[in-house]
Structure formats: C-alpha cells, structure tokens
Amino acid sequence: MVAMGQTENFADAIRGGQTALGIELGSTRIKACLTDHTGTTLASGGYEWENSLVDGLWSYPIEQVHEGLRAAYADLAANVTAAHGMTLEKVGAIGVSAMMHGYLAFDAQGDLLVPFRTWRNVNTERAAAKLSGELDFNIPLRWSVAHLFEAVLGREEHVASISHINTLAGYVHEKLTGERVLGVGDASGVFPIDPATGTYDAARLAKTDALLAEAGAPHLTLANVLPVVKRAGESAGVLTEAGAALLDTTGSLQAGAIAAAPEGDAGTGMVATNAVLPRTGNVSAGTSFFSMVVLEKPLTTRHEEIDIVTTPAGDLVAMVHCNNGASELGAWAGVFREFAVALGSSASADDVFGALLSGALTPGADDGILAYNHLSGEPIAGLPEGRPLIVRTPSSTLSLAGLMRAQVRGSFATLSLGMRALADEGVQIDEMHAHGGVFRTAGVAQRLLAAALGAPVVVGETASEGGAWGMAVLAAYTLSASDQPLHAWLDETIFAGSETSRVTPTADDIADHAAYLDRWADGLAIERTAVATTR
C-alpha cells in the first residue's frame, strides 16, 4: 500500500513535471509509462494492435501508429487523473522505443514511400548474404540496411525517391521532436557500429555506398540516408508543440520535455533488467525472443546466429534473435481459458497460465513430445516459413504437464541453438536477467530457461514492466544530466534495494536440456516438411 506522504510526493512530481514518459511500440501493444526520477511507475496506458500481411510482407499501417500513440497516451492520462486527481500537463523527459530493425523509407518531403516493413520479414536473404560477405560482418535479414539493399537489388520503383530511412522508434521520435536521430542500440540494428566512435562504421559505410552504386542507386549515400546516432544520456531534442498535439488531442500536454534518444526494444530490455555490464545479459520473452550478452571483447569470428549490436551506452553486445517467441504458448493458454469459460469459470489469464505451467517442471513429462512455436520464418533454425506444431511418439504420455513442458522448452529451443555459438567462443556469463509476461508465473519458465542457457537466470521486480518502463528510465537518465555512466546510475538510482529471484541450473538440468535440444533439432526435419506440404 502506498503511504499518504508518497502519494503527495507523486502528485508533486506530476504537477511539477519531475517525471519521465516512456512509450514503446511493441509487436502486439503500444504502451506508455510515466515514472518519477527513481523509476517508480506513476501511471501507464496501452493500445492493442497486430501486424498484418501487405503484399506478402508483415506491416502495420502508419495511420495506426499515430492512432495507437494517441490511444496509449489518452489511457495513461486518464489513469493519472484517476490515481492522482489531476490532469497531466507536462513531463520532464520523454523517450520512444519500438521493435527494432525493419524499414521505413521516405522521400524528401517526408512522405512514406512503401508500407512499413517490420523485423519479421525474411525476404532479404540475397541482400543480407551479399552485405555480410562484403563487409565481413553478420548482417541479419531483418536489419534496415538489408531491407534497403534488397529494395535496390530488386529495382523497386520507390528506391529512386528515397531521401532517408528510419526505424519505427526513430520515425515516432522525429514526429515528436523534429529530430532525425537514433539511440546507438537501435542504430546498431540499422548498420554496424564502430564502438570506438559510437556511430556507424565509416569503412563499412563506404563499402556499402559502393555496393549501392554498383546495384543502380548511386544517389544513396548512407551518411545522409541514415539517422544521426546518440548514446544514452545525450539529449536528442525536445517535445515540440506539434509533437505534444500528436500525443494529446485534448491540448493539455505542454511542449518542452527533454527527449532521450529513441531506442529499440532490445536496449530497453537491457535497461529494464539492469543488464548493461560485461558478462551479464538479458532475455526478452515476448512475441519474439532474444538474448543480449554484453561482451568483454569482440568475438573472434563472424557467426550467422549472432548479431553484434550495442547497449544504449554503446558497449558491444552479442544478440541471438528469434523471430518466434511466446505467441504459440499464449495461443494454447487462450484455448484453455476458452474451455474454462465454457465450464463457467471466471479465471484470469494469469490464473490460467499458473495452472497450465504448474506441472511443467516435472522431469520426463514431455518424453516423446516435441513442440515447435514457429509462426513465421526462423533463420537460426533454417526455416523460411513457420508451421506451429506438436508431434509425439505413440508411446509418449499426453498430459497437461507434458504438453506445457514441451511448449515452454520448445519456445526456448531456438534461442538455445543460437547460444551454443557463444559457448563455442568461450564467452563467460555470470548471470542472465529475464523479463516478459511468461515470467509472471513464478519459477517455472525461469528454471527451464536457466537449463536452456546453462547460466543463472535472475528475475527482478521489474521483470514484467517491459520496454516502456525501460524507456522511461532512459529518459529519466537523460533528464538527470548525470556524470555517472549508465550502469552506475542504474545501480544507485533505479535498482538500489530491488528484490530479485535467482535460479542456478544444476549439472543434471543442463545435461537434460542438451539431450532434449539434440532431439528437438533433429525434429526440425518435420517442421520443414510441414512448411513444404501445407499452404
């Protein structure tokens, strides 16, 4: 229960604009989160949305981006009024985060040339392979430069009109501030970053410009086409009158909030879990799964399974990104909730998840059962398309515990495949921090993930707060103008005294998962057959 004095302090912070507003455009939800300078959540709001196929490519309508921003902010503002008895009129700092990568191309007037192409699209294999080889750097299919180069190679009509490209977070930030910038973490999913300079790698920019010219687009000079890069803590403009009007249709919100550099969901996940130092990392579990391990030194070789990105402060990170995450697990939970409702139960979604996962730690319950969560293509697993499925041997026992253990372990399996490459590189991990809704059911997914990663997994109080909260924290860091590095400021200002739960896998846990993963990897042949034979 919040004490009366705290309530008054929160009200003073809101009234005085001593707050930070974080907005994140996730795969299924746009969320807004308002915090004080210590990261305490004062109010939140949200808007549900879903991607759709447009001409065979995953996209969201740009009009819905604006609609969702307004709706999420309106929900937050209403909750401020309900909880604190006042109208939200100003915030001290603001920051925008969004799903990373993807492709938004604009002409000189700022008009969008083709529908937004999200990270989920895997149609850039030709471009990514060419860039990876020429640059000697792994360029994943979903990176913005891969989308741009693929459009050039495909001689798409819009290429001749391109003035600049951006990520979703960068686009929204520009609408709010008029500044075309990216946080270094988000920028590292656009083009390779040179950690020495904290911006795009100059030598690789020159090589890519030559490739673009050779492919028929000499007008595309990447230094002009890509947004400017900034690190955490650096001011990236202020909320303009037009930006305030875009967010708040009532006209109550004032301009002037200091803006943090826009970040990707990977970076805000690292901040939300306080995993920004070398030998630590985090796992974000949502519509997609990805792990981020902060490196002590560069990897010795290029790996297709591993993206080299950065923290919001610019430190090198090895990222294993899986296009498919908890969506299939959530779909099964939805089916069981429908069944519960049909029986007259009023169980909440969390109640259903808790019941479903209660037996998932039972060893051997999923013997002979394999589950694949691939709704879309998965490069790490070598899948151009996805087909969610469950397969079991005739001798297996189908039980609730076995079914859900298979679903959770199958959800983590692709991530575990990618992490093997880091183990081969000798990368040491002291602990991994996990966040996402699946970890709200205490202990279950956390223990299975620890076995899958072969490292301790920590879940904190902020595990389900998500990227909007992490972005608000980055905005608060910008507002603080602190001389402390990001990791020290997080330790002292945001996470001091916070409670965590730590699970360390046993040798038996790790060995059991390794044997399971071999079986699961062999079973990918079934998934490939399903892709080839079902339409």
**What is the alpha-carbon Rg in Å?**
23 Å
Classify the secondary structure makeup into a structural class.
Answer: alpha/beta
Through-space gap between termini: 53 Å
Instruction: Report the uncertain regions.
Output: 1-7
Determine the strand fraction and express it as a percent band.
15-25%
| Most strands sheet | 7 strands, mixed
Number of helices, counting only DSSP H or I runs of 4 residues or more: 18
> Mean pLDDT, as a whole number?
93
Task: Tell me how many strands there are.
Answer: 24
| Shape designation | globular
Proportion of residues in helical segments: 25-40%
What does this structure look like?
The chain is of the alpha/beta class and 535 residues long. The chain contains 18 helices and 24 strands. Strands 1, 2, 3, 6, 13, 14 and 15 form a 7-stranded mixed β-sheet that branches. A 7-stranded mixed β-sheet has the order 18-19-17-16-22-23-24. The N and C termini lie far apart (53 Å).
Provide a quick synopsis of the model.
It is built from 18 helices and 24 strands. The protein is an alpha/beta fold and 535 residues long. The strands form seven sheets. Strands 1, 2, 3, 6, 13, 14 and 15 form a seven-stranded mixed β-sheet that branches.
